[in-house]
Predict the structure of histidine kinase.
Amino acid sequence: LEDRLRKSDTLNVVGELAAGIAHEIRNPMTALKGFIQLLEGSVKDDFSMYFNVIKSELNRIESIITEFLVLAKPQAIHFEQNSIVKIMKDTMELLNAQAIFSNVQMELITEGEIPSIYCEPNQIKQVFINILKNAIEVMPGGGKVLAVLKMNGPDQLCISIRDEGNGIPEDKLKRLGEPFYTTKDRGTGLGLMVSYKIIEEHRGKVKVESQVGKGTTFCITLPAGNNEV
Ligand code: ADP
Ligand code: MG
């Protein structure tokens, strides 16, 4: 428990720092993007490759900042009873274009009645985005992502998200959620850290099961019922 408390303390400090830095970086970034666009229109085509690199690197900075901001003390945090089924459907719709592009098919199955859950919908959506995105990214040649929602008794909602990607070796499993841990060329290594923090704040848990070469399943449990978080 002490370990967990310390970890969550650290996350709060990181969150406040992140908010400050993120806002400071956003403003100059906007200026940079604007002027680069102007420049691009007024120089020779030979430089288009440079501009592509500049723009892609700026986008990368932006995605790091965006993920960091989620960590930050949320401005408009609003816990209320929400349908997790709807949030999952919305998220899948949001990612549908990316999935189709990667030839990935997303499916949602609900088993039995799923009651609404006391949660912060935008944050839960962020968690689903992060995990579904990872699932899509881990299947560059296409495949299937299956999300299953079901109750585990009356007090616990169980959300599992399974992919058919290359899996995670046993010794790497414990590194998931570590800030900046990524195995991707263009990864930030922040998505899971943010997701774990959000689930922790909802008094939920995340478990990962993986088989190398076969796929990975993220199992999220959230407390159900009307108890405040
Ligand atoms: P990023 O996606 O930017 O790398 P994340 O925090 O989302 O950062 O994920 C961290 C790492 O965890 C990934 O780089 C990958 O190695 C591993 N990972 C996450 N989800 C999966 C998955 N579904 N299958 C295999 N590996 C995964
Ligand atoms: Mg990710």
In short: Helices lie at 2-42, 48-71, 84-101, 121-137, 170-173, 191-201. The two ends are 18 Å apart (CA to CA).
